Amino acid sequence: MKVRFWGVRGSIPSPGKHTVRYGGNTTCIEVRPDDGSLIILDAGTGIFPLSQSLFPEFPITAHIFNTHTHWDHIQGLPFFIPFFVPDNRVNIYGASDPISQKGIREILDTQLQYRFFPIREVELKADIAYQSLVEAEVVHIGETKITPVLMNHPVINFGYRIDCNGKSMFFTGDHEPPSNIYTPDDEEYKEYQSLIEQKNKGMIDVIQGVDVMIADASYTPEEYEAKKGWGHGTYDSNIVMARDAGVKKLYCTHHEPTRSDDDLEAVFEAALKRNPRQEGDPECFLAQEGLTIDW
Amino acid sequence: MIHITDIAIFYTCSKQTIGTVLACCFFMDDELQKKLMGMVDQMPPFPKSVHRIMTLSADINCAPKDLVQVIEHDPVITMKLLKLVNSAFFSLAKSISSVRHALVYLGLNTVKNLALSIATVESLPRKKTPVFNTKHFLMHSLTTASVAQHVAKTFDIESDATDIFVAGLLHDFGKAVLAQFATDMFAQSVQEAEQNQEPLHIAELRVIGANHAEVGGLLAEKWELPTALVACIREHHMGISSPLGDCVFVANQISKHENFGQSGSPVIESFPGYILERFQMDMEGMLDALGDLSSESEKAHAFIHM
After folding, report:
1. Residues B140 and B245 in one domain
2. Closest CA to A248 of A279, A212, A216
């Protein structure tokens, strides 16, 4: 299985001299399971350079799995070049929206409106199909199995576990560990806590034992205090989650957009010091634009 | 989509027809059954809850527990929220049994926006009937919910506290439905129950052809609410024992006994054998065991008048 990062930045693209090493594009991950399928996790701005790398393979069949529909995970989608070339096939998967009650097709329909984009969805040349997913609805592509897991974010967000020929990975999308809305002196606290534990266990059960986990580690614990409820995790919360799930390698992504490369390395090193690696713990890395993991 | 003409047809059906339709709901998929379910979508939440939800959700710093408190105290919003999160649209791996459960599963912002969309849905004007006072109904539902929780805690009944609260809150949901959609016949049932000093569900069965427990249970079942909750709503006048149902039965009678709001039923039912067996006491003993219930009533009162 091969994984390549094309966008590792959270919230908004962050180009400039301070982000040259880790990259400024928003979330996009290319996954190539051993059966040769092309799976793309999220369509942040990183999908534009990814799509340029695909020219030699045309015509292609691409499977784009959307974790959630916030801008930084969809803003590159209209620039996915295979859309404009006949004979390509693009399948787009993701959750429906419970508020509008519309399926995953709504992303492109909305983005490609006259006022926002010069080309309409019907004018795209590729063969495009949409599949709205529900929790735990497994998608089979060749020998690859993709399982959506409901995570915690201010919109419906699926993490995806990908399994192929005994190799596995998991991407959280954006995720903040659920926290108790009550204080310990509230009588509701204990019961709410048990609901949280149940929910966490459900997530851990699915992630269990993956070779690679790619996770939203936007903040340090200090930064998180002012950003509770924003829907993102910390380095520390992900190290704990990866440890609990018996993950082998953890890649921290969704880097905070104002963080320079030097600062990113510094806060990551500090997180590793706070969480010294014990036997059986995952190896931890920073996700970096252009980095390829091959195993 | 339900049009006003459909509602007019529904309202002008003969008593026999509505009775038959409601009764038949349990056995067949009927066009009118679908209409009834569609019409419930347009049932208005309580105006105070709507106002509170609009105010709280406009404040980005609102405390999640304040918002949850408003949602979980409004039977219409709770019912609609549970209906939606348990629907095929979500197809969640787990059945969601309470507002808090939904919050942990779907996150605050999704629940907040679902509540907002429920609160602002273009709803039917509330039908006013002198025999169905929404504040009294809400008071009865809320106190039944909190007393049921209190009973479970006092007697170590094993069930999640919020599930018991939800069951108490929604046990009479069918009355709100009948008051809205079979207004005249429901009013007649309340009057006849009063005149005959008989339980309301007996009068409903005679006048309408189905009682509020059956109607509420039917809707809860069709909306795929958790099985225990459906059973509790449907069976709360059927003499079927379950830990959840027994707590709600006791709380229902206590709420009437203490005059916490009005349920529309003039009869306080004595504890049947299975209740006496579970709790080893009658109503009087129960009131002693539970102690001062004024805080249950004060909390509900404060919520209704906030």
Report:
1. yes
2. A212
So what's the ipTM on this one? Answer: 0.91
Do B238 and B266 lie in a common domain?
yes
Q: What is the structure's pLDDT at B8?
A: 36
Number of domains in chain B: 3
Beta carbons of B40 and B173 less than 8 angstroms apart: no
Distance from CA of A182 to the nearest CA of B (A): 7
Instruction: Test B90 with A186 for CB contact under 8 angstroms.
Output: no
Crossing angle of helices B64-72 and B108-119, in 10° steps, is: 40
| Structure-block tokens of residue A244 | 């609990």
d(Cα B296, Cα B284) in Å, to the nearest integer? 18
Nearest Cα neighbor of B247 from B139, B299, B175, B169 is: B169
Q: What is the mean pLDDT of chain B?
A: 84
Is residue B129 in a domain? no
pLDDT given for residue B11 in this prediction: 40
Which residues in B lie closer than 8 A to residue A158 (C-beta atoms)?
none
User: Domain A2-294 is in which class?
Assistant: alpha beta
Please tell me whether residues B200 and B250 are part of one structural domain. Answer: yes
Average pLDDT, chain A: 97
Residues 15-54 of B with CB under 8 A from A: none
The pTM is what?
0.88
Mutation to test the A interface, candidates B62, B80, B109, most A Cβ within 10 Å: B109
Is the pLDDT at B105 greater than 50, yes or no? yes
